[in-house]
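A favour, since you know our C-alpha cells better than I do. Go ahead and set the record down below.
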Amino acid sequence: MSNQSSDVEYETTSPILMPIVEEIRPEESQEVAHTSSESNYDEPESDKNDKSAAVKKRKHKKSKSDSLSLTPPSKLLIRCEKKIAKYKQNRMVDKAIEELVRCTALSRIVYGEGHWKLAKAYVQLADAYFHFKNYVLQAVYHCENARNAMLSAVQMTESQLEKANILDVLMRIYLTLGRAFMAQKKYCDSEQALAKADKISQQRSQMSCVSSKESTNWQIKIATLLGRLNANEKKFAISSSYLETAIDLTIKHRGNDSIGLIPIYQDLGHVEQAKGKHANHDRAIEMFLQAHSIASAK
C-alpha cells in the first residue's frame, strides 16, 4: 500500500502536469514593448486629420446647441416668423410648413394656451396646409385648434389695433374653414363659416385702424367664395350676384385690367354655362373673353 501511495504522489508533482511558463529574456521584453509602442502611436496622417475634424465638428455642434438652448423663446419665435416669410416668398413650401409647426410650439410657450397669437399661429398653419398642399383634414384640424384657443380665454384689450388683430384671426379661421368644408362638399357647414367670416369682416371694416383697401380685399375674397359655394349648390342667381359684386369691387379699387378679375370672370362664365336651358351663352362667352384679354395684356 505504501508503495502505491508514493507512486501517485510522485505523478501529481510531475513537471508534465505543471503549468507551462515561458521565460522571457530581457531582449525579447524590449522588442515587445517597442512593438506595442509602434502599434499605439504610429497612425497614418489622414486618420489623425479625420479624428481632429470629427472632434471639431462635435465641439461646433455642442456650442451651437448650447447657444440655441440659451436663446429666449421670444427671440426664437421672431427668427421663426422671418424664416416663414422668406420660405413663402421663395415657394419653399415644406420648409415653410416646418417653421409654421415650430411657430405654434413657440407661440404656446411665449403667449400661453388661451392667447389670440397662438390661434393666429394655428390658422396660419391651417391655411398653408390647404393653400400649398391641399390637405383639407389638416386645415380643418388646425382651424379647430385655433378656434379652441380663442374660446378658452376672454381676449381682453383696450387697444383698437389689437382688437382689429383679434377680429382678423377670427375672420381667417372661419374663412379657411369655409374653403375646407367646401372642398369636402359640406356646403351647409361652409355657408355657415363664410357667413361668420363676412359678418366679422364687416364689423372689422368699421374700425378706424383698418384701411379701406384692406377691407375691400377681404370683401372681394369672401364674395368670390360665396359665389363659388352657391354655384356648387346650383343656386345660380345668388352665385351670379356675389360674383358680380366681387367684379364691381375689384374694378372700383384695382382697375378694370386687374389680374384679380381673371378667376372671377371665369367663375361667372362657368355659372352662366351651368344654367342649362336658361343659360346665356353670349354672356358666358363675354366673361371668358374678358378674362382672356386681361391675361393677354399681362
In short: The mean pLDDT is 84. The chain has 13 helices and no strands. The radius of gyration is 38 Å. Residues 45-70 form the longest helix (26 residues).
